[in-house]
Amino acid sequence: MFQDKIDNVYEILRQTQAACVVFDSPHSGSIYPRDFKHQIPMYIMRAAEDSAVDDLFASVSDKGGVMLRALFPRTYIDANRYETDIAPHMVKNPAKWNLGFEPTDKSSWGHGLIRETLCYGGTKLYKKPLAAKEIMARIEKYHRPYHEALKTLIDEAHDMHGQVWHINCHSMPSSCVSANRKTDFCLGDDFGNACYRAELTDMVKSWLENRGYRVDVNVPFAGGRLVKDYAAPSQGRQSLQIEINKAIYWDEANDKPSKDYNRIKSDMESLSGYIIDTAQSRAMPLAAN
User: What confidence score (pLDDT) does residue 5 get?
Assistant: First the structure.
């Protein structure tokens, strides 16, 4: 059953969804389930969170938009991965895994549906593989409800307005950014498949650049499952992933907001309002039945 909140799983921020824009933050969750028996210390685990990204974009609900935020950590189960994106060696009894194995390059890096490491080649999260029933329980309690909520919100907006813009919100560790180009934002549109670039990607890119930010498109991140699965531009369903360089708003070494946090949050509030206003100005009101 679709709800506006499931304790420890997700929460939806909205007043009245008058706008045709849905934001979601799948990786900012920080409520760690009791059965998450990771062997890495918590203060290190926290580094994998998209820290406070949900807060940076929380004002969308004041502007008529809606925000879905995950409350569970991505290291427990990743909402931006397919249920089959898991390597067989991560499952204690792979013969009992009924969903099949279709690991992508994310799994080979240790960042599949069930996280193996925090960083490429780093310490493993678990001392031993997880039982198939443990992973399935995470899918049923956390992963599927998040997707059900996002799909419902997107469908509702599309039904109401005849179109919907989905903004998928993330942050990226500063270590992901090339030393030769200090990118502040990466916009991912699945190489033009998730939205009309001239209509959405270029619009957001120009807005950010006009405020002095350095922006790349699809490098290093082009968008994962949440952008790919819910996008169909020809049907009026456009998705765009926004990745913020964590270093511009977060003190990564001390795991706390940086001195620039409030400035970045103010800019994200302005950007969100601009996206919502632009989307609404282009929406075609549906004729009454």
Answer: 92
DSSP state of 143: I
Helix (H, G, I), strand (E, B) or coil at 107: helix
pLDDT at 175: 84
Cα dihedral 37, 40, 46, 47 sign: negative
Mean pLDDT by 10 residues, the chain (289 residues): 85 86 97 95 93 96 94 98 96 93 93 90 89 97 98 95 96 79 93 96 98 96 95 97 97 96 98 95 60
Q: How many CB atoms lie within 10 A of CB 203?
A: 18
Before 220, cis peptide (omega within 30)?
A: yes
Q: What is the pLDDT of residue 121?
A: 65
Give how far Cα 60 sits from Cα of 14, 88, 144, 275, Å.
Answer: 8, 40, 24, 10
CA distance linking residue 61 with residue 69, whole number of Å: 12
Q: Which of 135, 138, 119, 116 is nearest to 127 (CA)?
A: 116
State the residue for tokens 């970045």.
Answer: 264
Report pLDDT for 44: 92
Phi, psi of 141 (to 5 degrees): -90, -30
Which tokens hold the place of 91? 């499952």
Largest Cα span, the chain:
59
Q: Which helix (H) or strand (E) holds 239?
A: strand 237-245
Residue 6 burial (C-beta neighbours within 10 Å; 0-12, 13-18, 19+): middle
Name the amino acid, one letter, at 286.
Answer: L
